[in-house]
């Protein structure tokens, strides 16, 4: 038995307020499980932004279409990693695919994940890039021509008919993709929302709140990436595109804020048995992360910043600044939302008679450093994807530029 | 004895020595196959007024089931509830065996009453832990006990989150979920769970819901009963007699 672990638990004992069941001293789902809904939320949100272009034909957002898809893919590829690292017996994780317990919400993970990755995201990206991949394969030198040939799945058909079929396929996949993206993140919300033992989680609104906060975080992440990468490429930002994304972001934050407000008022008005301990939880343990970071900095300030940009007709530079600040604050706010749900839901006793404490370690598997590493990894994957399958360099440009 | 004779004797002695061992194994196998889980449905009755808070059940459980001795892992534990007069409220604490002190006196509110509540897995008939386990490592037996297959558990801890009673923990050595089994290994041999066996006040009554004459049947007939958190519809098979409404 790890003496350090026991020492850590012993340190928490004096921090307990009131009474907790004796097994509750250990916080079971910590930073890695906070990261999981945060990462999948970004996937769902980025995909929804991409689908605006193809399904709802929002032309202005076209410049970030491929960036959104690749962002979704990069985050989706890393999303299972924190789950795997968190397992007590990670070598047995395959059991979840081989012998799933069909009554378990968590057992559906494998199916939902595989569906979204294989049927939606990879397929849509493949159809969208097929023409370019063939062209790049023809024009590149060894070994890249071989890589592109494999990525194109040895497809060679560049006839008009084939290109038309690609477009049609993308549209169909996107239409399937929207409910799938909803399923992916609504399902993550359901894992928490269906735990009847925990009144902080148990709410039918939780999957919906997860979904809209996902859309908010995904749109904000693509906005941020676009605003950082474009100047690095020495290209000007497409202002109509930025304005349109910011406008979608603004409305998504309003819906998210309304839903969270509804959840809050509903709990307060119903005032069930748990309300006393939950009030204590919010006022003591979560005050900074919930009231200050999630609501004030993560929602109200960005809303105000984006509303001011519209109302006072800021010039381009000021608009860029206000969008940039809003998008960063929203990321912070949504991360705090995930933290408050996952960790917050374990900081009170199921006896409703006391609060416990969580102390994040720096080193170790459930520590800060691993958390940061997991958070950085999707960006590294994205960098590789952007290099390999440039969202900007279309086949025509590539041919023109050599 | 010459060498030839010795070898002959040895060749005969080895199988002969194995016979009693084999016979014992065969008998044990027969006993196990004779046990029919469909004929039982186990439960426990707890008489609040009899518990003296000695904590021997906690110690016996840890010894019997290899529960880590550190005070963060329990299959069973005892809580003390102390109600104060007026608006003095409620104080609850976990009992540490051998360190029991009287409830804190003094202050403007004197103690109205104080009592002990032994806790353990409720062996729910509709167990949320079984429902949520992604790989089916946690399961209900036909005789009504919720068990964990530690060879299959992946250590995701979803069951720990889903248990409304705080009855589960992650075993720090195996990294798998662990909980009270009603001492299943003893029960199928006709023995009592360790906590029931050692309780000096007979506050715990173990029995079979399917039996017609059984201590649990008598317990159910003789007492007004209550279960923990009935609104969650988990249908516990641990029944409490004289349970105060304050207990969660």
What's the short story on this structure?
The complex is a heterodimer of chains A (402) and B (248). With 402 residues, chain A is mainly alpha-helical. Chain A contains 15 helices and 2 strands.
Structure description:
The complex is a heterodimer of chains A (402) and B (248). With 402 residues, chain A is mainly alpha-helical. Chain A has helices spanning 3-12, 31-54, 65-78, 80-86, 95-98, 109-139, 144-151, 160-193, 205-232, 239-270, 275-285, 287-311, 316-342, 368-388, 395-401, and strands at 17-18, 354-355. Chain A has 15 helices and two strands. Chain A has a two-stranded antiparallel ribbon. Chain A starts with a helix and ends with a helix. By secondary structure, chain B is of the alpha+beta class. Chain B has a single domain, classed as Alpha-Beta Plaits (2-Layer Sandwich), CATH 3.30.70.20. Chain B contains seven helices and eleven strands. The longest helix of chain B is centred in the first third of the chain and has 32 residues, at 3-34. The mean pLDDT of chain B is 90. Chains A and B meet through helix 1 of A and strand 3, helix 3, helix 4 and strand 7 of B.
- Count of spatially separate domains of chain B: 1
Termini Cα gap of chain B: 76 Å
Instruction: Record the strand order, biggest sheet of chain B.
Output: 9-1-11-10
The main sheet of chain A comes to: 2 strands, antiparallel
Please trace the helix and strand order of chain A, writing H or E for each element. Answer: HEHHHHHHHHHHHHEHH
Series of secondary-structure elements of chain B, N-terminal to C-terminal: HEHEEEHEEHEEHHEHEE
**Count of alpha and pi helical runs of chain A:** 15
CATH T-level topology of chain B: Alpha-Beta Plaits
Helical residue percent of chain B?
25-40%
Q: What's the overall average pLDDT of chain B, rounded? A: 90
């Amino acid at each position: 038995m790890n003496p350090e672990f026991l020492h850590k638990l012993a340190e928490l004992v004096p921090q307990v307020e009131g009474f907790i069941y004796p097994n509750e001293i250990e916080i079971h789902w910590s930073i890695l499980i906070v990261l999981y809904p945060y990462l999948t939320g970004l996937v769902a949100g980025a995909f929804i932004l991409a689908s605006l272009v193809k399904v709802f034909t929002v032309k202005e957002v076209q410049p970030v279409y491929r960036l959104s898809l690749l962002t979704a893919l990069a985050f989706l590829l890393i999303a299972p990693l924190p789950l795997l690292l968190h397992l007590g017996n990670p070598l047995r994780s395959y059991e979840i695919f081989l012998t799933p317990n069909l009554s378990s919400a968590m057992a559906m993970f494998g199916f939902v994940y595989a569906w979204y990755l294989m049927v939606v995201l990879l397929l849509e990206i493949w159809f969208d890039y097929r023409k370019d991949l063939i062209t790049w394969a023809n024009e590149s030198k060894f070994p890249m021509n071989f890589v592109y040939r494999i990525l194109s799945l040895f497809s060679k058909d560049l006839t008009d008919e084939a290109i038309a079929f690609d477009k049609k396929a993308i549209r169909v996949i996107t239409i399937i993709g929207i409910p799938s993206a909803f399923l992916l993140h609504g399902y993550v919300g359901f894992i928490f929302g269906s735990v009847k033992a925990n009144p902080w989680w148990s709410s039918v609104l939780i999957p919906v709140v997860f979904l809209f906060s996902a859309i908010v975080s995904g749109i904000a992440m693509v906005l941020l990436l676009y605003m950082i990468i474009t100047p690095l490429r020495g290209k000007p930002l497409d202002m109509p595109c930025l304005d349109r994304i910011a406008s979608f972001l603004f409305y998504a934050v309003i819906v998210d804020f309304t839903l969270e407000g509804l959840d809050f008022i509903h709990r307060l008005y119903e005032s069930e048995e748990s309300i006393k301990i939950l009030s204590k939880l919010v006022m003591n343990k979560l005050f900074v992360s919930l009231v200050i970071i999630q609501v004030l900095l993560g929602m109200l300030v960005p809303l105000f910043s984006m509303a001011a940009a519209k109302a006072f007709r800021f010039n381009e530079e000021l608009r860029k600044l206000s969008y940039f600040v809003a998008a960063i604050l929203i990321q912070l706010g949504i991360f705090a939302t995930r933290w408050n749900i996952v960790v917050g839901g374990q900081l009170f006793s199921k006896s409703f008679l006391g609060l416990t404490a969580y102390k994040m370690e720096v080193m170790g598997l459930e520590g800060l450093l691993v958390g940061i590493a997991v958070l950085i990894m999707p960006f590294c994957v994205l960098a590789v994807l952007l290099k390999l399958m440039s969202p900007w360099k279309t086949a025509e440009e590539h041919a023109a530029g050599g | 004895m010459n060498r030839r004779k010795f070898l002959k004797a040895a060749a005969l002695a080895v199988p002969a020595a194995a016979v009693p061992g084999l016979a014992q194994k065969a008998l044990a196998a027969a006993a196990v196959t004779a046990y029919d889980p469909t004929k039982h449905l186990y439960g426990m009755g707890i008489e609040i007024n009899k518990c003296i808070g000695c904590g021997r059940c906690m110690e016996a459980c840890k010894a019997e089931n290899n529960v880590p001795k550190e005070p963060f892992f329990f299959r069973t534990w005892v809580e003390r509830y102390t109600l104060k007069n007026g608006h003095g409220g409620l104080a609850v604490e976990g009992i540490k065996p051998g360190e029991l002190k009287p409830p804190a006196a003094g202050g403007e509110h004197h103690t109205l009453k104080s009592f002990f509540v032994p806790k353990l897995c409720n062996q729910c008939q509709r167990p949320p832990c079984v429902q949520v386990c992604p790989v089916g490592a946690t399961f209900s037996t036909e005789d009504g006990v919720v068990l964990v297959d530690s060879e299959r558990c992946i250590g995701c801890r979803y069951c720990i989150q889903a248990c409304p009673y705080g009855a589960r923990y992650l075993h720090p050595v195996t990294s798998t979920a662990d909980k009270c089994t009603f001492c299943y290994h003893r029960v199928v041999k006709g023995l009592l769970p360790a906590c029931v066996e050692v309780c000096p006040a007979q506050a715990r009554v173990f029995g079979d819901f399917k039996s017609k004459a059984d201590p649990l049947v008598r317990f159910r007939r003789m007492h007004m009963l209550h279960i923990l958190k009935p609104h969650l519809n988990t249908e516990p098979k641990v029944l409490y007699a004289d349970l105060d409404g304050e207990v969660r």
